[in-house]
Design brief:
The structure holds 2 protein chains of 2 kinds. By secondary structure, chain A is of the alpha+beta class. Chain A has 4 helices and 5 strands, in the order E-H-H-H-H-E-E-E-E. Chain A is 23% helix and 31% strand. The chains are: A alpha+beta, B alpha+beta. At the A-B interface, helix 4 and strand 2 of A face helix 4 and strand 2 of B.
Chain lengths: 161, 158
């Protein structure tokens, strides 16, 4: 990915889409979120969503999956001095995650990420935090996921304290 | 379905409860990361040691998934859970390393009844994953929806 200095507020990445099958919704939920409306198609019909739905964490983790794939496809060119741009760092967490509409079997979710803020780090002058608004939209144009993500990104040059 | 043990009425603001424990294996960290978050520090011990995180550690999305599973096993599957509209905030404060033993701490922060759906109530919890050193590795806050044992009853809050 680009160096922290080269990331522009307002820049937007289309991360591609993912179609959720009943099988993978159930497989994820059996491991991590085995509530009946995520693992049992029959019982889910009488549940709060009127049918089988993906765990919200499954919808969210799939955003990460497509973000990593997008970054790996878009290798940045090296600097003039040969330094290779960074691979990206960890995240301190996220804010304001919403799952406003459930994801159901057969839904195709298109994910995106738009940079909204860049923050200096007091304790780590060689890193910065990039905040992005991340969205998942289904095939009917309904937002199924939104959150403000944060990630540490290396700087080309350490910030002067 | 059988009668759930826990309804909205059973979670009272101020209550703190702990559940667990779970020891996190290298294999499950790599399995989750391979599918959802294939970054080197979630896949490889040497790459983890060389990274800013200092060791092979779970994807934050895996930590959230483990927290969800611990909630399910501790009480959620025996409750009148109606899902959650989202999560206000998650902080990944410390890495969850391979070999760490984590427990779940639940603090009930506040609650209210649903005005539009008398059969439902909402509760805001702080959920934390605490490691074997007593450090909070993951902290989250958010609302969850539960069925009420007594739909529509008047609730007096202290």
């Amino acid at each position: 990915m680009p160096w922290f200095e080269d990331i522009k507020i307002g820049s937007r990445l289309e991360l591609g889409s993912h179609t959720f099958t009943a099988e993978e919704i159930i497989a994820y939920a059996r491991k991590y979120d085995p509530q009946y409306f995520h693992v049992d198609e029959e019982a889910a019909k009488a549940g709060p969503f009127g049918g089988l739905t993906a765990s919200g964490w499954h919808t969210s983790a799939t955003w990460m999956k497509l973000m990593i794939a997008t970054r790996q496809d878009a290798k940045e060119p090296p600097d003039a001095d040969g330094r290779v741009p960074p691979s990206g760092g960890p995240s301190p967490g996220f804010l304001d995650m919403k799952w406003p509409v459930p994801v159901r079997p057969g839904d195709t979710i298109s994910y995106s990420s738009e940079v909204i803020e860049k923050i200096d780090m007091k304790t780590r002058p060689e890193w910065g935090i990039v905040r992005s608004r991340n969205i998942g939209v289904n095939q009917r144009g309904e937002t199924v996921l939104s959150f403000i993500g944060q990630g540490l990104v290396q700087r080309r040059q350490a910030r002067q304290k | 379905m059988r009668e759930p043990r826990y309804y909205w009425e059973d979670f009272r603001p101020g209550e703190v409860a702990e559940f667990g424990e779970k020891t996190v294996s290298k294999e499950e960290i790599v399995e989750f990361a391979s599918e959802f978050d294939p970054q080197p520090f979630h896949l490889d011990e040497e790459a983890g040691r060389q990274s800013i995180l200092g060791g092979l550690c779970a994807s934050g999305w895996h930590s959230c998934a483990m927290m969800m599973r611990m909630m399910c096993d501790a009480y959620l599957l025996d409750s009148a859970s109606m899902g959650a509209p989202g999560v206000d905030e998650v902080r990944w404060k410390k890495p969850v390393y391979a070999g760490d033993t984590i427990r779940l701490r639940r603090t009930c922060l506040e609650r209210r009844v649903s005005k539009s759906r008398p059969e439902m109530g909402l509760t805001r919890f702080r959920l934390e994953l605490v490691n074997q050193k007593g450090e909070v590795a993951v902290s989250s806050e958010g609302w969850a929806m539960y069925g009420r044992r007594h739909p529509g009853a008047v609730v007096e809050e202290a």
